[in-house]
Queue: 3 jobs
Job 1
Amino acid sequence: MKSKIDVVKTLLDALPFIKKFSNEKIVVKYGGAAQTSAELKEQFAQDIVLLHLVGMKPIIVHGGGKSITTLLADLGVDTTFVDGQRVTTKEVMRIVEMVLSGEINKEIVSLLDNHGTKAIGISGKDGGFLKGMPKDFDNFGYTGLIEDIDPEIVDNIIEDGAVPVIAPIAGSNIIGHPGFNINADLAASRIAVALNARKVLFLTDTPGVLNKEMKLITNLSIEQTEALKDDGTIQGGMVPKVDACIEALRGGVKKAHIIDGRVEHSLLLEILTSSGVGTCIEL
Ligand SMILES: Nc1ncnc2c1ncn2[C@@H]1O[C@H](COP(=O)(O)OP(=O)(O)O)[C@@H](O)[C@H]1O
Ligand SMILES: CC(=O)N[C@@H](CCC(=O)OP(=O)(O)O)C(=O)O
C-alpha cells in the first residue's frame, strides 16, 4: 500500500504537467475500439473530469465504428471499409447518425455529467460547426471530408466551463442532404488544428503503432511514419489515425499520441507523468 508521503509525491510529480497544460486545449479522440467495457468508460470519464478540474480544456471527439458495424449487422445491412474508411450509402448514413449522435454521444455526456463535469454533446451539424464534402462519392457515398470548420460553437461551450463532446458527422449546405460520415480520427485532427489545440491524443485498442515484430514504437517522426505506411507496416484503421496525427502536426499541434485505451487511466498516464504511454509522433 502507498504511504501518505508517496501519495503526496505522486501529486507533486504531476505538478509540472498541470502547469504546462493548464488552460491549453487538448483534443482526445475516443475510439470505438477503446469503448468496450463499462469500467473503461468510467475510468475515461474520471480522467477527463480530473484534467478539466485542474484547468485543462479537454475536447472529446468520439468514434463508434464497432457499434455502427454491430447495429448494421443486426439489421442485415452489409458494410465495407476501404483503407480504414467505411463506404456510406444513404441507408448506412442513417444508422451512423443514430449510433454516433443518438447513442454514443449522449452516453459520454451522461458519464461526464455523472462524474460531476458539465458536458455538451454536439455533432458537426450543430451550430454550423463542420461542413463536409464527399471524399469520393462514386466509391464512398456519404463518407466525407471536412470542407469548413466554424469553431465558435465549441469555443462557446469551453467558455461556458463545459467539456465539448463531438460526434464526427458533418453537415452540408444543400437542403435535405443527409450529411457526411467523417472518420473520427480525421475529424479530431482537423478540429485540433482549427481550435489551436496543444495536443491531440488517440485512444485505441493497441498499445500504439507496432512494428513488423508487433513491438511498440514509442517515438516517430512524420518521415518515419510515412515510411511505415509505404512498407505496409501500418494498415487498416491505423492508416487514418497516423494520417490524422500528421495533419495535426503540420497544422501546428505540438504533439500527437496514439495510446492504448484498454489500459486503465492511460490518458492520465500520458498527460500527467513523465513516463508516457503509446506512440508519440512529432515534427
Ligand atoms: N502497425 C500497426 N500498429 C498498430 N495497429 C495497427 C497497425 N496496422 C494496423 N493496425 C490496426 O489498427 C487498429 C486500430 O484502428 P481502429 O480499429 O480503426 O481503431 P479505433 O476504433 O480506435 O479508431 C488496430 O486494432 C490494428 O488492428
Ligand atoms: C468514414 C468512417 O469510416 N467513419 C467512421 C465513423 C466512426 C469512427 O471513426 O469510429 P472509430 O474511431 O471507432 O473507428 C465509421 O463509419 O465507422
Note: The pocket of N-acetyl-L-glutamyl 5-phosphate (ligand 2) is lined by residues 31-33, 63-65, 68, 85-86, 96, 143, 168, 181, 183-184, 237 (CB under 6 Å).
Job 2
Amino acid sequence: MKDPDASANPPVDGSELIRFDHVTKRFGSNTVLDELDFSVESGKHVTLIGPSGSGKTTILRLLMTLAKPDEGTITVAGDKLFPAPEKQVREVRKKIGMVFQQFNLFPNMSVLRNITEAPVTVLGMSKDEAEARARELLDMVGLADKCDARPTQLSGGQQQRVAIARALAMRPQVLLLDEVTSALDPELVAGVLDVLRDIARTTDITMLCVTHEMNFARDISDQVLMFDSGRVIESGVPEKIFNDPEKDRTREFLSAVL
Ligand SMILES: Nc1ncnc2c1ncn2[C@@H]1O[C@H](COP(=O)(O)OP(=O)(O)OP(=O)(O)O)[C@@H](O)[C@H]1O
C-alpha cells in the first residue's frame, strides 16, 4: 500500500499549506463563518469536529471554490485562492483534491476511466501514464481487480475507495475529506477508514477532514480543531482534545458523540 508519490512537489514539511485569514461567510442573515483564522501545515492531518451546522463543510467548499467567502483571504501553498484572478484560482485549485460524502462517480464509465478522466483532460497527462497511475492507486485502495467494473457493480465502500483513488490521481497537495463514510452501510465503514489510515501513514499528503468518526480522528490527526458557531474554539493534539478539553462546549459536544 505504499505510495510515496501521492502528491506532486509537496512543499517542505512544516511550511504552511492552507491559511484562512479573517474569513467570513454568510448565507443571507446567517453568518456561518465568522472572521475565521486557522492554518494547516504541510504534511499534517487536521480534523475539524463540532456540532452540526457549525460551518465545517463550508470550509471545505470554500477551498474547493464551490462557494466564495464574503470577506477575508484564503491562501494555499503561498498563493491566494481568494481573492484572486480566475486564472490563478484554476491553478491553485489543482493543488486540492476532495472526497465527498456521496461518491459522485460517473456511472457509465469504467472504474479505470473514472480515475484517468481528469488527469488526461485537466492535467494533460498521457493516457498511458494516467492508466499506469490509476492501476497503482486502485492497488493501493485494494481494488486492483475492479478496473473494468462499472461503479454500479461495486458496493458503496468500494465506490468510495474509487473516489479516493480518483482524488489522488490528480496529485493534489491536500486531500479534503467530507464525512466520507456517512453515506455507507455500517459494515462498509471500516474498510474505507482503513484505506485512509494507510494513506495517512504511508504518504506525505496533507489531509483536512470533517468526520463524525471520533476514533478515526483520534488515530490519524496531528491536530484537531473544535468548531462552534463558525469559529475555532479550541485546538490541539487528539490526546488533549479528546481526553482533557479545556472548553465546556468541547466537553459537552464530545460527551454527546463519544
Ligand atoms: N448553500 C447554502 N445556502 C444556505 N445556507 C447554507 C448553505 N450551505 C450551508 N448553509 C448553512 O450553513 C450552516 C453551516 O453548514 P455546514 O454544512 O458548513 O455545517 P457543518 O458543520 O458541516 O454541519 P454538519 O456536521 O451537519 O455537516 C448551516 O446552518 C447550513 O444550513
Note: The CA atoms of residues 63 and 96 lie 8 Å apart.
Job 3
Amino acid sequence: MKLNVEQRKIVELEPNGHMLIKGVAGSGKTTVAIRRISFLQMHYCMEDDDNILLVTFNKTLLNYIHYQYKKLEDEEKGDIEAWLSGDSDVVIKTIDKLMFSYFMRYLKRHQLKRQIADQQTLYKTIQQAIMQLKEEYADIKILSPKYSSFLLDEIAWIKSCGIPDEVSYQQIDRIGRSTGGRNTPQKLTKNSKTRQAIYQLKERYDELLEAKGLVDFKTMNLLALQQAQEVDQSSYTHIIIDESQDLTKVQLHFLKTIHDEKSYGSITFVADNTQSIYSHSWLGKGRPYTTIGYDMSGKARVLTKNYRTTTEISKAAYGLIEHDEDIMGNVDFVKPSLIDRHGHAPIYRFFLTNNEQIQFFKQEIDQLRQEYRLEDICIVAKEKRLIEDIAMNLENEGIPTEILHQKQPDFGKEAVNLVTMHSIKGLEFKAIFLAHLDDGVLPNMAQVDVEDEETVNTEERKLLYVGMTRANELLYMSSVKKPSKFLKEINPNQLRFKRDASLRPFQKIAISNYQFSEQLLDVNAKEEIIRQWMIYQLIHTYQYPKDVLSIEYGVQQFSKRGYVDIAVMIHVDGEQIPYIFVETKSFGNGVTSATEQLKSYMSTSDHVRYGIATDGLDISIIDRNGEPINDIPKCQPHFLPETKYKSTYTDLRKNKEYDYLQDKDDLQTVEIIDQTTGLAKEMDQPIQVPIIGDVAAGLPMSAIEDYRDTLPVPEDWLIQAQDTFVLQVTGDSMIDDGIEPGDFVLVHRQQTATNGDIVIAVIDGEATIKKYMPMGNTILLVPANTNYEPIQMNADDVFINGKVIGVMHRNHM
Ligand SMILES: Nc1ncnc2c1ncn2[C@@H]1O[C@H](COP(=O)(O)OP(=O)(O)OP(=O)(O)O)[C@@H](O)[C@H]1O
C-alpha cells in the first residue's frame, strides 16, 4: 500500500517531543503509527538504550495488528514479527498489559501479594462498605445497595482521574455525570455531603479489598503509576499511543512518566474523539491536552480521508453523528473527506423475532460465501450475550463461527467472526452485520443511573458510528422488535431494503400524505400502511409519476374478478398497459401467499413484466415467469406519454450535436442538452430566429417583418442574430449529409462562401441548398445525394444567398 502525501509526511516527521495525529475513522492512523515505528527505529534510535513503545487500548486491535502484519509480504513483515515477539527495541502492548507488568514490579518491590478482584467480589465489597457507612450518612440517599453500580463507577472514575484526596474531589467538575433523572440517585453537587460520603465510601471499599488481598483495576493502574514514578521512569525514547482518546488520566500520566524526554525523543497521541466510547476516558471528553501537561498548538497533524469504507457507507455513518452537538462541538473533531470508492448503500432490515434475524443472516451469508471468505464477514452486537446467542444459532444452522474476545482471537479461521461493538474498534472486515440495533439495547438507558442521558446518547451513538465505519464493502444493519432511535437519525435515502435493489427500508407514511385517498375505502386499514410505503417508493425511488400508478386495478381470472393493490401503467405506442403489479400485505404477515396471488394476477395480462409482493418486512420481486429477480426497473422516459417534441440540432460551425426539446403545449419552452456531456445548456434569453419559408424561396433581400413563426435558439449558435433566418428544407438533395426534407436550417445571410460550406445559392432566381466548391473561374454546387449530379456554373452566374450554420432535425412529430 502506498501512503498518501499527508500520511507519508507524518511518518517521516522529525521527532520533536509531543505531537498529535488526529484522524477520522479509516484514515490510516494505525497504519501510520506502524510505519512510524520503522522510521523512528531506523533514524532516531541512536543510543543502545533507545527503544520504541506502541501502546493500544484495545486488545483485539493489538491481535489484529499482529494478524494484519503477519500477512504483509514486504520487508516490513520481518520487522513486525520481531517487534511482536519482543525480540527487538520495539514493544507493542495494550495499556493494561503494560501497566500490569509495572504493578507486578510494584508488588515485588514492596513484597506484597495482591490479586485483581473479579466483578462479583467488587459488588459484594461495595455493598459491605455501604452497610458500614450507612448509619454515619443516614441522610444521604445515594448510600444504598441499589446504587451499587453507580457508586462503583464513581469510585472507578475518582481513581482513573488520580484524584488524590477528598478536598480535590469536592471541587472537581464532573463531565457527563448524571444530574438527577429517572434512575439517578441525585446530583453530585460540589462541596456537598454527598461527595464526602462517596469519598469516604471509596476509602472504606479500598480498605476492605486490601484486607482480602485484592485490588480493583483502577487501583492496579495507580500502583503501576507509582512504580513508574518511583523507579521505572523514562523507559521509552519514543511512545506512540493509538486510540489515545480512550485512555484515562492516570493511564496518560503513566505513559508520560515512562517517556524518556531525549532531544530526539517523541510521544505521539493518535486520536479520533468521534470514536471515544469509554466514559472514564480523559481526552475523549474534549478536555485539552494541557490538562496532561502538553500544549498541542502547532503540533497536531490531521488525516481526513477515509480509505476503509465506500462513500455510501461513510455518508450514512457521518449522517448519524452530524447532528450530535457534543461530537461536532469537540475541539478535536475532524470532518471526514471521501475518496472516490463506491459500493452498495448500507442495508437495513427490521425483524419481529430473533429467529427471523438469524434466518436473514444465514440467507445473506450463504449468498456472500460465493464472493467472500467466511473470515471476511463479521457480526457485531452491543452485548456479549447477544453475540453468543447469534453464534450458537448460526452454528446450529451449519455456519462456523468464531467469537473474537479479549483473549487470543483467531482471525484467520475459516469462520464468521462475531465481536462486541466495543471490541471491534480498530478492526475492519469486508462485510459487517450490525445486529440487534434494538430499542433498549442501543442506547441502553439502564446506564442513565450512572451517566446523564445526553452523555449516554452521545457515547452509544459513537458506538454505532464505530461499528458502521468498520465495513470495507458491505454493511448490514438490523433490529428486532423495536428499532434503536439512532436509526431514525440516518437519512433513509442512504439505506436500502436489500442488497441489489434501490428500494429504501420500510417507512410509515403519515395518513395526511396518503396518495389516492379519495379512492380508499378505509384509510386506517393495516395493509394501507404498506401500500402507501410502496406508492411512495414507486414515486420517489423509482420515479414513476403518480399519473402512471393505479390502485385496485381490476383483472379478470376466468369468472372471478381480482383487484391488484398497485399497478404501474406505462405508455407504449399511444396505449397504456400494465407493467408492474404490486401486492401488499399488512406488516409482518409474510409474502408467501401474496406472491402466489401476484403470480396469478400477472398471468391474466400479456403485458405485465414485473411483480412485487411485500409485507414491509420481507419482499419478493419476480419477473413474468415468476422467477425471483433483484429489482424492478426505474421509470424510463419512453414509459411516459410524449409531452415534448424532440429534435436534434447540429451546429455545423462547431461540429456539435444537441437534443432540442420543445414543450408540445408551449413551443417557446425549450430545453437543450449537449449530447457529448449530457448536460443541459444554460440559456437566459433565447434568440427568436424567424422561420421565413422553404429553401426554394431563399433568403429575402431585405429585412422582413412578415413571418409566422420563430425558432428559439441560444445566442452562441449564431454569428449575428439580425442576419440569421430559418428555412425549411424541401428537397432531398442533401440527404447524405443528414439534411432531410422537413428539416429546418439556420442560415446566416452572406454573399461569400469558402470551400466546403453548405450554402443557399440562387441560380436563375431559384434558391437551392448545396455544398460550395470553387474550381478556378467556376463553382461546383455539389449535392449530398448520389442521385443528383453536381452543378457547375460560372462564378458570375451564382449568387450566394447565405451559409447554412446549423440543421434542426425533428425526430418525432
Ligand atoms: N494511503 C492508503 N491507501 C490505501 N489504503 C489505505 C491507505 N491508508 C490506509 N489505508 C487502508 O485503510 C484502512 C484503515 O486504515 P487504519 O486501520 O490504519 O485506519 P485508522 O485511522 O486507524 O482507522 P480507525 O480509527 O477507524 O480504526 C486499512 O485497510 C488500511 O490498509
Note: The chain has five domains: 5-109+222-307, 121-211, 337-442+468-494, 511-639, 644-810.
